[in-house]
Design a protein that fits this description.
- By secondary structure, the protein is mainly alpha-helical.
- It folds into two domains: about 210 residues, MetI-like (MetI-like fold); about 200 residues, MetI-like fold.
- It is about 85% helix and about 0% strand.
- Helix 5 crosses helix 21.
- The longest helix has about 40 residues.
- It is globular.
Length: about 525
């Protein structure tokens, strides 16, 4: 008894032992794999060589990590600030959401390989890096914040209105409080995304930063430097992720009195043709705003016409009497390949994220053991992991699917885990009173209440999967839209680059819209509030 009491006073328990043991096992497996030939093949560096390299070049790595962290912090702050402001506007003004949501999705869907030259011409190098980091985070936080604001307890909102309170009071007293867990979950997802965006931003140019070390390490075939960047990127992402997770546990206590409810939208008593006509009008308006933004961006920032191509240039590219048909066929064939890659990875990432979220809910020790690995998978640049993944899974379909699954898996896991933990206690108590198993409780209570979050994750993952597939095609397979866009850039075919980016963005927008439509149908049928 005294030993158990001493452990309790010292705070020693499975929650502290499991991550230490799992980290030691991971390091041992990593060291063995590197020593078995992967380090000699310049695919993987061993932990011992990474530590030795960091000690020898401590100043270099410290300065680079500080530079990347500063870019990531600013990108994370400004990207999330824009996301929260837009979310508040979307919730209070439906017209703003109907018009601007597709623009937000478009900005999120722009492929990095197409975005880089535009940012280089538009902003100073430091600003361009911050913008890229901000673009990497704002959409996921936007979706999470809108979900949280719309999941506010409707009884509390009705009570405030009954006492004469306005929308501002309802937002301050109920919506923001109810939104906090979902918002913090979005901020957690944004932490590794900001680090990754900052590293990619350093590819735009500079003299210091983890991205610069990564480029130099890849150019000199130095796996120690490459994987040192991977380790530091994981640490930079893991620290804010862990702090936000701690804050989330505190906030869950503040918002425990409000029952999260599925967001609902009023269904107007109009015939089907009228609703379809209204939806089509909003879609046309949204597309017009996207195209108008495209023109305005080129004009306001005075982008060189050599690089910056307008919608009219893209239209002329695919309607050219001599080569337009061939170009369009090439683009559509590449798109078909990318959709196959992204579709399989999308489904696998959603399924794996949801399943592992349920596992973590059932066995919290598993979360402590595997969360560092999950964060690393999202934080390490794909250019670092791709050689190892190609070695393990090949350059074909399986390799691209694995890369796409990794990218879509983490946002789904974080979103679903937060949602499963916010299941109303009363519903759980009822099932427990009937001695229901965890599987029954998960199926009948947890998942129905988490459906809005599942669809939020699915909406985020839809364009993310397309982007991930293009990155994998660029880095590994040499086919699909990712390879076509990269080839167009290397050949200075900027009209082809913009055409590929426009087609890719259009496909992502359609995928997002399909998931949104499916969400409305499913929540209308299976909403736990009904």
């Amino acid at each position: 008894m005294s030993v158990a009491n001493d452990r309790g006073r010292l705070g020693l328990g499975p929650a502290h032992v499991v991550p230490i043991v799992s980290a030691l096992v991971l390091l041992a497996v990593w060291q063995i794999a590197a020593s078995a030939g992967l380090e000699q093949a310049r695919v993987l560096a061993s932990p011992s060589s990474i530590v030795q390299g960091m000690i020898e070049d401590a100043g270099l790595y410290a300065n680079a990590a500080a530079q990347t962290a500063w870019v990531a912090i600013r990108g994370w702050f400004f990207g999330n600030l824009v996301a929260v402001v837009l979310a508040l506007l979307f919730v209070h003004f439906a017209a703003v959401e109907n018009l601007l949501l597709k623009l937000a999705v478009t900005l999120f869907c722009l492929p990095v390989v197409a975005l880089m030259p535009i940012l280089q011409l538009t902003f100073e190098p430091d600003t361009a890096r911050v913008v890229l980091a901000g673009l990497s985070v704002f959409f996921t936080t936007l979706v999470a914040t809108v979900l949280g604001l719309r999941s506010a307890d409707r009884g509390s909102l009705t009570l405030i209105r009954a006492w004469g309170g306005g929308e501002a009071t309802a937002t301050w007293r109920v919506r923001l409080r109810s939104c906090l867990p979902s918002l913090i979950g979005g901020l957690q997802i944004a932490a590794p995304a900001a680090v990754l965006g900052a590293i990619f931003g350093e590819f735009l140019g500079g003299t210091t930063g983890l991205g610069i070390i990564l480029i130099n390490g890849m150019g000199s075939l130095d796996p120690t430097r490459v994987w040192s960047v991977a380790v530091l990127a994981t640490v930079l992402a893991a620290v804010p992720y862990a702090l936000l997770a701690f804050l989330g546990r505190i906030v869950n206590g503040w918002s425990a009195g409000l029952t999260p409810q599925p967001p609902v939208t009023a269904t107007p008593a109009r015939p089907f043709w009228a609703r379809a006509l209204i939806a089509a009008a909003w879609s046309v308006g949204s597309v017009a705003i996207v195209i108008g933004f495209w023109f305005a961006y080129l004009r306001v920032f005075d982008v060189s016409p050599y690089v910056g191509k307008s919608p009219l240039d893209v239209l002329g590219y695919i309607t050219d009497p001599e080569e337009g048909a061939e170009r369009l066929t090439s683009l559509l064939n590449a798109l078909g390949t990318t959709l196959v890659h992204s579709g399989i990875g999308y489904a696998a990432g959603l399924a794996a994220g949801t399943a592992i979220a349920a596992l973590f809910l059932r066995a919290p020790a598993a979360e402590w053991a595997f969360s560092p690995i999950m964060i690393a998978l999202r934080s390490v640049p794909l250019v670092v992991m791709t050689p190892l993944l190609i070695l393990l899974f090949g350059r074909g379909l399986s390799g691209v699917v694995v890369i796409t699954t990794i990218v879509t898996f983490f946002p789904t896991l974080a979103t679903m885990l937060a949602a499963l933990r916010r299941t109303p206690v009363d519903a759980l108590v009822l099932l427990r009173s009937y001695d229901a198993s965890f599987a029954v409780t998960l199926w009948r209570v947890h998942l129905p209440f988490a459906l809005p979050s599942l669809f939020a994750a699915a909406r985020i993952a839809a364009p993310t999967a397309v982007l991930a597939a293009t990155l994998a095609e660029w880095l590994a397979t040499g086919d699909g839209l990712g390879s076509l866009i990269a080839t167009s850039r290397s050949h200075s075919d900027y009209v082809g680059l913009w055409a590929g980016a426009a087609l890719l963005t259009a496909a992502s927008l359609i995928a997002y819209s399909v998931v949104t439509a499916l969400e409305r149908l499913v929540l209308a049928r299976f909403s736990p509030a009904e």
